[in-house]
Amino acid sequence: MKPDRSYLAARRQLEAMGVDSFEVGVRDQAGRMLIRTWSKDKVLESLPWLKRENAKGADVYVRPAEVNAGLVLVDDLNRGALARMKADGLTPASVIETSPHNFQAWVRVYDKPLSPELATEVAAELASRYDGDPNSADWRHFGRLAGLTNAKPQHRDANGRSPYVLAHESSGKQAEAGRALLRQVAQRQLDRAAATERETRRKATETAQEPRKGYDPTQTYRYGLKALYARFGTSMDVSKADYMIGVDMARLGFSADQIGQAIEEASPELPTRKAGHEADYVARTVKAVMASPKVAEWQQAQQKQADEAQREAQRQQVQRQQVRQRNRGPRLGM
């Protein structure tokens, strides 16, 4: 039997989306959603049933199952917005006309799956640029399945007929400017995370209380930084501050590992200030701290004290033995 136009439209869309499995959602007139996870072939095989449900007034939707294959959905676009997307190098992999002159665009911005957070922000960026629906901008949003009708009452014509959902350009190709968009959004996420980290570290330093000696390396670092800020201002060289605080911590008895942990967790703007080589920076700073003359002098003094304490303990032990010997008195022969 020759495939009908509904079959051809659905196949065109599914092939352009280019994923191994799909989630198909069937929402009835009461708003209940039935979701099935099917392969492309199973979706096409199930079209007769989907048509029957559609004829009863249900709307039929589709989205990639589990992984998004680098696809994001932009909803509620007009022809002008689509033209601007193409001019900007963001030609959709598939364009679906959901009602007359109203479109959804599946845009492939990358050839590999995106994280949910990144995919959602990319979708939001595209919706903002091209006046799409911001409420549909998330990594798991359903789009309509082509070849069936849009059953929403407001789209019916004067004769009560629902418009068909049409598949237009559906090359399935990655957008030329997709990677650039991805880099821009990813950098924005990194910048936002860095700003949050900076603010978190700043507040922790401002509110730092004097810790118990040798108890909490990170809190000890923050309290030391707070004191340096009060003395030199917040514009001081932070790398120098790391070294100075590290030296003070070593002289309080903290180990090299504890000092490294404190710098890693509390040094201002470390993720951005030393981006890409934070661990190397921390290791070099700790090495310099432990090689400091002040630390060496303190270690020698500690060793001297330990040696004196050991000698004193030995002296006292000898004295106790002598006292016990005297208290026993002379041994009597038989």
Automatic annotation (TrEMBL):
InterPro entries: RepB-like_DNA_primase_dom, RepB/MobA-like_C. Residues 190-217, 300-334 are annotated as: Disordered. Keywords: Plasmid. Residues 236-288 form the RepB/MobA-like C-terminal domain. Residues 323-334 have a biased composition (Basic residues). The keyword Membrane does not apply. Residues 40-174 form the RepB-like DNA primase domain. Residues 190-215, 305-314 have a biased composition (Basic and acidic residues). Pfam families: RepB_primase (PF16793), RepB_primase_C (PF22448). This is Uncharacterized protein. It comes from uncultured prokaryote.
